Amino acid sequence: MANPTATDLDALLPQTQCTRCGYPACRPYAEAMASGEAAINRCPPGGKSTIGALAALLETTELPLDPDCGTEAPRRIALIDESVCIGCTKCILACPVDAIIGAGKRMHTVIAEDCTGCELCIAPCPVDCIDLIPDPRPDTLALPAHQRPETADFRQRYERHQQRETERERAKAARLAAKRREMLLKNASGTLAAAIARAKAKKG
Fold it and tell me: Is the pTM of this model over 0.85?
C-alpha cells in the first residue's frame, strides 16, 4: 500500500499497549512508523508474523525483532497474590485496559480474560505480589496480530480506558477551576470589605 496511514498500521498491531516498542501505546508507535521515525521490528508481542504484515503493508524489507525491545514469546498474564496484596491501587492505575479490579486497602484481582499481558502492573507494585503465568487462552502468537481473536477486544478496552481517563481529567480540571473561582471570589470579597472599612474610617 502506498503511504499507509497510522490507522492502517495500528490495525496490524496486537494492542497490548505494553510500551516495549519505546512508545506509550500501540497507536503512537503506528504514528511513528507512518512518519518514518520508527522501524517495523519493535513489537515483541506482535512477533515475526506481525513484522511480516507491517513489512508487506509498507512494501519494505522484513526485519528481525529488535532485541532491545524484548523477545518473542507466548503471552503471559498477570496474577495477584491476594494474600500479600495491600490494596495500594498502583497496579489498577498502571493497567491500560482496566483488567484489574479492587479498591483502596482492599484486595485486588486480575480479570484474566481481559489482561493483555502488558506487564505494566508489575513494576509499580511495592510488595512484589504480582506474578506472570501462562495465558490459559489458546496461543495465537503464530498469527499476525490483526488476525488474533483477542486483538479487537484489547483495542476496545484500551479506547474505553482512555475515554474514562480523559473524562476524569476533565472533571479534575473543572473541580480545580471551581476552587480557583471560589478563592478569587473570597479574596475579592475580603478586599472589598477592607476597602469599605477604610472608607468608613476616613469618614468617621
Answer: no
